[in-house]
Design a protein that fits this description.
The protein is an alpha+beta fold. The protein has nine helices and 19 strands.
Length: 336
């Protein structure tokens, strides 16, 4: 792999901070300590994937069933690392703060994971299984943190239209603020996700502050939205026939120095790479219709007869004499 790829090393830095924090957690907060220890253990053994800013891999403004059906990761425990810088130059929202560094810790739920994350144990009965998504994020004020709760995304899932009048209270609590702020598409789509507790004492404190468990559940799902988006996009792309995930090895010399200093060694990364197209691929199809203006086509999944492939961002019809179409291709967060 090219050494020009910038390593983020978010997981190593987070583990260093958690190792210092865990011994200081009060004895009357055993759930908090157990949560940090469990997440640290999962983060350490996870396969790390390096993603682009805001995990923008495909265009998911119009969420389809194909996205959810393809949401399968090749490893049981995966850490998706991505910078999260918005157009104003600041990090994405996390409650009352901004977070420019994200780790989406994604874990296939089984009995062993349920022992580490007892708040998710009741999802073992979910037919078809699913993925536990735990947001781990960095803020300038507090450094690396673990979200008080995560989101369980079942594999047996169905995308449907969001109709406010038919939605339950928790779903409306998540979606209506986005609609009122004009941040949602006109036709919102939804799929099944459910909150679970990671840090019990912190969750209980938030219930006291917000006044109800439903409100905290809704905020938990809202704050896991970006990380769920990262899971879905990565799951779609990594399973495409024309995608490789070569290994970007950690620098051995630097890791020896880190180990001598008692720090967590940097980890190897998997990097999503598009295989070069075969000769002749992507040429014009001909025909009598007028040639369209040049425009950017966002990355997307293309389904063929026996496989699916990922088509990266492309300048379509670059030689057109009809001009250029300029569009806003911002990938919006998934709507629940």
């Amino acid at each position: 792999m090219s050494e020009e790829i910038q390593r983020l090393n978010y997981s190593a830095h987070a583990l260093d901070q958690f190792a210092v924090l865990i011994p200081t957690i009060r004895r009357d907060m055993p759930g908090m300590r157990a949560g940090y220890e469990a997440v640290s253990q999962l983060l350490r053994v996870s396969v790390k994937y390096l993603l682009p800013n805001c995990a923008e891999l495909i265009d998911v403004r119009e969420l389809r069933q194909a996205h959810i059906d393809s949401m399968r990761l090749p490893h049981a425990v995966v850490a998706l690392e991505a910078p999260w810088i918005l157009r104003d130059g600041e990090g994405g929202d996390k409650t009352a703060t901004r977070s420019p560094k994200r780790i989406a810790l994604c874990v296939e739920l089984d009995a062993d994971v349920a022992e580490l994350l007892p708040g998710a144990a009741h999802f073992l009965a979910e037919e078809g299984g699913g993925v536990c998504v735990i947001p781990v994020f960095w803020t300038e004020a507090a450094g690396w943190q673990i979200a008080p709760g995560g989101a369980f995304v079942p594999h047996s899932n169905e995308v449907s239209a969001y109709v406010p009048e038919e939605a339950d209270e928790r779903t409306r609590l998540v979606n209506e603020p986005l609609r009122e702020a004009g941040l949602s598409p006109k036709k919102m789509r939804q799929f099944q996700v459910a909150p679970f507790v990671v840090l019990p004492e912190r969750y209980e404190y938030d219930v006291q502050q917000l006044g109800s468990l439903r409100a905290v559940h809704a905020r938990t799902l809202a704050e896991a939205r970006d990380e769920i988006l990262a899971l879905i996009q990565t799951g779609c792309v990594v399973n495409c026939a024309n995608i490789d995930a070569p290994l970007l090895e950690a620098p051995a010399k630097l890791n020896r120095k880190r180990e001598q200093a008692g720090r967590t060694p940097f980890f190897d990364y998997r990097v999503l790479a598009l295989r070069p197209p075969r000769s002749g691929a992507g040429e014009g199809r001909g025909g009598q219709h007028a040639s369209p203006k040049a425009h950017i086509r966002r990355g997307h999944i293309r389904r063929l007869e026996h496989k699916q492939v990922w088509v990266s961002d492309t300048l379509v019809n670059a030689s057109s004499e009809r001009g250029v179409v300029v569009k806003d291709y911002e990938v919006r967060p998934l709507r629940r």
